[in-house]
Amino acid sequence: MSDFILNLPKVELHMHIEGSMMPKMLLQLAEKNKIELPFKTLDDVLDAYKFKDLSQFVDLYIQGTEVIQTAEDFYTLTMAYLHKCKAQNIMHAEVFCDIRTYTDRGLPAEMVLDGIEAGFKTAEQELGISGGMIPTFIRHLGADKAAEDWQFYKKHTDRFLAVGLAAVEVGFPASMFKDVFAEVRAVGLPVVAHAGEEGTPEYIWSAINDIHVDRIDHGIRSLEDQKLVEYLQHSQIPLTVCPCSNVSLHVFEHMNQHVITKMLDLGLNVTINSDDPAHFGAYLQENMEQVQSECGVTDKQLIRMTHNAIGASFASDERKKELFERLKRYERKYINNERN
């Protein structure tokens, strides 16, 4: 383990809260809420977390959402993730959530916001971690469902950081959600969208031109379009890249094939994140270690991506200043140590 990475003050911008559910918690919440799972033992769950393809991953993810039944469950899950953040020196975290997964089962939408919000309030007071949630529309359910969800979200805009677009990308471009995101923009909320992971660069263009994103989640396929690369170089729209996720879902077969170093060399505004860390076996620290050992990412590039992440975050200006100063002190100490 790299001491440099361990001690580096970090920021995470792309993490789905259910994707942080470790096997033990899956069993605990299932028992608490009397939910039957197709697993007998912890070893069975651990084996399931070694999924072979996207279909198995989706099945596992859905099983994780099914054991969450109350705001207390969301609080427990959020606190477990934020304690992991504390252990990995993550100072600010922004997590994705949605209500549709739960309201379609007859559960109250409020429980999602209540539980996650309570977790971040506790973490700020007890762990010194800032951040919050970004509710998303589930794109493969279509624009009508997104519009329905917005009717709830717009009553709670003071409780979250931005609104996003997530889930199945191909066949569901951001253009389908142009109207609802116009309403999101009208109330002054930032917009983010998953684009350019499984989808071609056209999906990134749609996120930019049709819903006017402040951040692009993934964006790794931008390199297939030179005009898009030039646009991203000029605009510096942040890209929340998730290397271990990309390998686990076979966007790249091996980490040494990942394009993160090319993206950095081209001057794109890259940040590094974990996506679904429990499922992919890699939280933010492990993602950093993997790209360093397999892709040749340097310590200075890790500092650069952290700097990018602070700037791309939806933290307050005061908190950003504090995080920038902390990173600068760490960089100064690192450079001084390197020269000695």
Architecture overview:
Strands 1-2-3-4-5-6-7-8 form an 8-stranded parallel beta sheet, with helices on both faces. The radius of gyration is 19 Å and the shape is globular. It is built from 17 helices and 8 strands. Helix 16 (299-312) runs antiparallel to helix 17. The two termini are 22 Å apart. 45% of the residues are buried. 52% of the residues lie in helices and 11% in strands. With 340 residues, it is of the alpha/beta class. The longest helix has 23 residues, at 317-339. The chain has helices at residues 3-7, 23-32, 42-48, 54-66, 71-87, 100-103, 110-126, 143-153, 178-186, 201-210, 226-235, 243-248, 260-265, 277-280, 284-295, 299-312, 317-339; strands spanning 10-12, 90-97, 130-138, 163-166, 191-195, 215-218, 239-241, 270-272. The mean pLDDT is 95.
